[in-house]
Amino acid sequence: MLGLGTLARIAGEVRRDVAAAHARDPAARGTGSLEILAGWPGVQALLAHRVAHGMQGLGIPALPRSISFASRLATGVEIHPCAQIGPGLFIDHGSGVVIGETAQIGENVTLYQGVTLGGTGFATGKRHPTVQDNVTVGAGAKLLGAITIGHGAKIGANTVVVHDVPPNSTVVGNPGHPVRVDGQRPEGPDADWVHLPDPVAEAIKALSARIAELERELAARRGAEPGPEGDVRPLRPVRGPNPTGG
Fold first, then answer.
1. What separation in angstroms does the CA of 168 have from each of 58, 149, 151, 185, 235?
2. Cα separation of 86 and 104, whole Å?
3. Which pLDDT tens digit goes with each residue over 105-132?
4. How many angstroms from the chain centroid is the CA of residue 135?
5. How many angstroms separate the CA atoms of 50 and 165, rounded?
6. What are the pLDDT digits (tens) for 68-79?
7. Domains, in order of start, for the chain
8. Fewest 10 Å CB contacts: which of 30, 148, 163, 176?
9. Could you give the CA distance from residue 91 to residue 48 in angstroms, rounded to a whole number?
10. Dist CA 224 CA 204 (whole Å)
């Protein structure tokens, strides 16, 4: 059975999880800890995982997977009992989050809804991501394989990451590419997802400029006037205030 030391460790981790919800969810400001435990599915899923993981470590059969299954039905969050999760994880909204068997998550990590820490192929052993401390992963992002997400990194919404991510970098796109915002690394637990660079649009813009240059050279050889240059219009606005308040 679970010993007093294991129960004390789980209780401490749960306190950190509730504190993370207070600190990183504006909807939790002014809300009591008991209400967060009763109404925040991400916190509930972590509580269930802390218990299931403790049982898994003690070699108790069947029950850890049963707890994980029941938690998935109740919260929409699926966490394998073997996954290693550090204190202070905050799963915002929770729905659709999947954390695989060999995933490792450090301290003070933030995951938004729809995030997958998944494996690739059918190989055994370490096959899920390692997420280091103070990482933020945007909604719908997919982190696949035995990759490492460096300390303080930020993963943009719907990004697909299949390679290691350097510390303190911001990654967007499919596949994910490290980028900078205004020449600087974004700081803090939340990134300004609206104003992140678009590597696909930047690539198209570079191709358009190259095509315009070739057209000018061709027109000069023919002795003709070059045609009008094409304009690549952004699909979304890049101006305006940071919606995260930064």
1. 36, 9, 6, 7, 27
2. 8
3. 999 999 999 999 999 877 788 999 999 9
4. 7
5. 27
6. 999 999 999 999
7. 1-82 (no CATH), 100-197 (2.160.10.10), 198-236 (no CATH)
8. 30
9. 13
10. 26
